[in-house]
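Table 4 source record.
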Amino acid sequence: MSARLIPGSDYDEVAWRALSFFSGYRFIISLIFVALVWLTDLPEPLGTFDDRLFALVTQAYFLAALLLFVPLRLRWPGFGYQVAGQVFIDIFAITLIMYASAGVSSGFGMLLMIAVAGGSLLKPGKIAYFFAALATLAVLGEELYAHLVRFFPAPNYTHAAVLGSTFFIVAFIGHKLALRVRESEQLAASRAIDIQNLAALNEQIVQHMQSGVLVIDADNSIRLANSSARKLLGARQELAGQPVTSVCPELNWFIEQCRSQGEQAPVVIRPSTAAVDVQASFRPLNPGGDAGLLVFLEDASVLRQRAQQMKLASLGRMAASIAHEVRNPLGAISHAGQLLGESPQLDAGDRRLTAIIQDHSKRVNAIVENVMQVSRRQAPAPETFELGNWLEEFCSEFRHQNDLPEAAVFCRVEPADILVTIDPSQLQQVMLNLCSNALRYSRNEPLLTIICGVHDDLERPYIDVIDQGPGMPVAIAEHVFEPFVTSESQGTGLGLYIARELCEANQATLQLHDNSETGCCFRINFPHPDKRHILE
């Protein structure tokens, strides 16, 4: 196995940093030698055989150690060349210092051992054994040269051989340790990349979740929030770093309850800056502590749509039972009342009674029809279309069906290119119900006002259906979307209920936006454009 440097990688930076430490060690050793030469008499065995050579070599060694910082700073030439060059300088300079200071008995062989070990750790491989061989030859050559030039003391070849063997052992150990260190570094770098990728993946998942996610710290400040949370709360700015009380006071109250009580069931809130109901669920990040809180936000209309699928199954079975148990007897009653009403022997009072039978039979039949309409309703078939063109066609058809003049129905769409994704047939059924109710109660021109726009903060399209009537009583307004709630003696009380069910089936919401003495305003909020793919 060979180690390669990858420019710009963390492994590359660690290797260069290690080489800088090795250069720093060389600078300190050479500085000590120069200081001894300049400031004091050399203690034995320094310069014992040749003090002038010792002074010359140590000063040259110091100068070389100083100049080596320049290519180290520039990182040129390459890492391997700089390691080899520094180790060669160490071996050459220390061997000369050893020669000038009583040979191998001076103890400078330890400095050679450090040079070999440093080269082996910085540059493992066959070159590590080359460093050991070069140091061994330098020591043996120094002893041989001393034996030929000087006649005393006697050369210590045994000591030199043992020192050379130690060099090879140090090179082997350094080589193995370096390989193990590099394997660990490469494994750590690989794991770090995996962790970074996993963190990036988690961030992408969180940011693109349809559910909103908030991380709340102990001070009730938002530490993390994804884009869905920002849209559900109707916030324009980034939520991270903002206190919850300034973003959504309604949510802050439940967070305080969760911290004080320890548990908090999911709650549905209506943020003051949003036009949709939001279900919030709370999970402590550290159970048993107060460090943080994880809050999940869900669009309540989506949850209602899921619950509605189960509701529709139950309503289907109920409608089949009603059709079997009520419709057949009702038909017999209606038919008998009709035959009785045709009898010539009835007086005016009896005819009035038969008329009542017929009227209420029709009303019960209408209730059955409406319930069956809810139960038999097919799944939405959403389409994406321009709302302005669709509303223009709808208003024209509505005027024609109700024989209304042009000024009776006012429609405004801003901007003109609003796109919505919804089942157009079910939207038409909702609009017919709302517009028929508005027309029934309106007294002034225009009888019906339809305004279509886009929320500035939520980017959700909406339609307002406004009448010019007297408004509705508070008791009725509070339960206007519940089944069988009506102020009309002949009404079934299922029209607005069915309209809201149709909206929720398409992930839209229907609400009583305004109720006053000058009229009512019902608003349809369409799904956010980013959530169209859910319906599609």
